[in-house]
Amino acid sequence: MPELYQLTIKEKLEGLKNSSFSSLELTESYLERIKRIDPELNSYITVIEEEARVKAKESDQRYQAGSPLPLDGIPIAHKDIFCTEGVLTSCGSKMLANFISPYSSTVVKKYEESGSVVLGKTNMDEFAMGSSNETSYFGPVKNPWNNKCVPGGSSGGSAACVSAGLAAGATATDTGGSIRQPAALCGLTGIKPTYGRVSRYGMVAFASSLDQGGVLTKTAEDAAYLLKAMSGHDPKDSTSLNVEVPDYINEINQDIKGLRIGLPKEFFSMNLPQHVEKSISDALKVFEKLGTKIKEVELPHLDLSLPVYYVIAPAECSANLSRYDGVKFGYRCENPKDLDDLYMRTREEGFGPEVKRRVLIGTYALSAGYYDAYYLKALKCRRLIAGDFDNAFKSVDLILSPTAPDISFALGEKSSNPVEMYKQDIFTIPANLAGLPAISIPCGKHKGLPLGLQLMSKSLEESKLLRTAHHFQLNSDWHKSWPSL
Ligand code: GLN
Predict the structure, then answer these.
(1) Where are the domains of the chain?
(2) Which atom of ligand 1 approaches the CA of 429 most closely?
(3) How far, in Å, is the centroid of ligand 1 from the Cα of 323?
(4) How far is the CA of 309 from the centre of ligand 1 (A)?
(5) Of the chain's two ends, which shows fewer C-beta atoms within 10 Å, N or C?
């Protein structure tokens, strides 16, 4: 018999409906695991035990009344970037370590309306800047597969908690790879939808033209349940797309026969580690068996992605983070002498080194003398990268690559070398620059640590990604194992 945490979301919903267990029992089983396992893992910044129990009891009443909501009683966690009314929303920073949000983000509200039970808020890199969760003010998170290794980032807490069975699924955000890279490093499914699919209202801003909410789950089917609940138009977000959200759950079984999968030759000429290549070529065999056609494609401007991202993201972050000035909310330094001192010391004391580095780079790239040379140039290159995808998608339906350059790495191994850390997102950043949806799924293991592959598609084709991932998972076992904890 599998334990409760090991059931898929679909199985949990069935069990709740059939009264095999109650929502309160399910919630208690997660709270007990969190108490036992999380002190070592550090995946949660805040656990809201009492609120979770209250919500679970409400959910049980709806089941008893025979009118459950779509995700009734499913215990989830929110990345601590999503404003949650009455709950600490720290964004992994000292700057917001005292910020009890007075309102809830649209994502948090939508999950409330779907009946899910929120267990708490997950750890993350400070302001979502990082690939290892080591920039968090609340300390690093450990990878459940090996506690000497990082879970990836910036959604490292969400990834670690789902991978360890401390939530049935978790929300996350992805500006350059922060859903997909931790999914790969923790052996999970992670989907970043099309830019504009999920509302950014109440999601603490890092780089507004790239930030997108999504989910981390065990399986593609679980992701379909959670993505359905969080997607949709929001008049409170001016970049939210006013288009219908497909029924990801029903569409997930549709056949994938005949789909054309493109392999960008620029990615595969990169000298990948042998075990990464092998995991991808094994996965391709599965896809071929499923009736898809594999062909090479070209994305000629791919090598510009990393430098373009590291101009645009810092530029936008330097504008977004200027709101943290010690005046209205968040951290304020002690006894400021005057207004300048208040601004300077608040930021000096409230921000960590990676955030400061980004603000400096961004301010420089946007300054009058350098705007044309850096920021404007980066915008033009971004257009070229998006154009490459438009061209490639004329001849294929999906594009496949590794998600991350390798398995997880040791805590501390890359933290003193920012450029090495930035390279973690070499495969994931292009989708953010082009605003495209992308999913990461487990496709192998090396030295006991998970490996992931990424699929990208045209705008708004999340359903195709979920379906392809689901069929792969029906024909592979990588997503099934659990770390022994
Ligand atoms: N690792 C990348 C960065 O540090 C991406 C982060 C993200 O997607 N939020 O910027």
Answers:
(1) 4-259+396-480
(2) 5
(3) 20
(4) 9
(5) N
Q: Residue 78 in 3-state DSSP?
A: strand
Which residues on neighbouring strands pair with residue 192, listed in sequence order? Answer: 438
List all residues 6 or more positions away from 328 whose beta carbon is below 8 Å from its beta carbon.
Answer: none
Q: Which of 116, 178, 457, 459 is catalytic?
A: 178
pLDDT beneath 50, residues of the chain? none
Nearest to 146 by CA among 412, 448, 406: 448
Write out residues with Cβ below 6 Å of ligand 1: 128-131, 154, 174-178, 206, 313, 425
Please state, as a whole number, how many other Cβ atoms lie within 10 Å of the Cβ of residue 148. 12
Give the burial string for 257-280 (b: 16+ CB within 10 Å, else e). Answer: eebebbbbebbeebebeeebeebb
Would you state the pLDDT for residue 446? 98
**What 8-state DSSP symbol labels residue 96?**
G
- The candidate with the shortest Cα–Cα distance to 410, out of 22, 132, 191, is 132
CB atoms within 10 A of CB 165: 21
Assess contact for 403 and 184: CB atoms under 8 A: yes
pLDDT of amino acid 57: 98
Per-residue pLDDT at 269: 87
DSSP 405-466: SSS--BTTSSTT-HHHHHGGGTTTHHHHHHT--EEEEEEEEETTEEEEEEEEESTT-HHHHH
Rounded Cα gap, residues 118 and 455, in angstroms: 29
What pLDDT, on the 0 to 100 scale, is given for residue 1? 83
101 is catalytic: no
Nearest-angstrom CA–CA distance, 194 and 243? 12
Helices (H) and strands (E) in the chain, counts: 17, 11
- Based on the residue annotation, tell me whether 67 is a catalytic residue of this protein: no
Q: How far is the CA of 340 from the centre of ligand 1 (A)?
A: 30
Residue to probe by mutation, ligand 1, list 122, 131, 316, 428, most atoms within 8 Å of CB: 131
CA of 51 to the centre of ligand 1 (A): 31
Helix (H, G, I), strand (E, B), or coil: what is residue 209? coil
CATH of domain 4-259+396-480: 3.90.1300.10
The confidence score (pLDDT) of residue 268 equals 87
Q: What is the pLDDT of residue 290?
A: 98
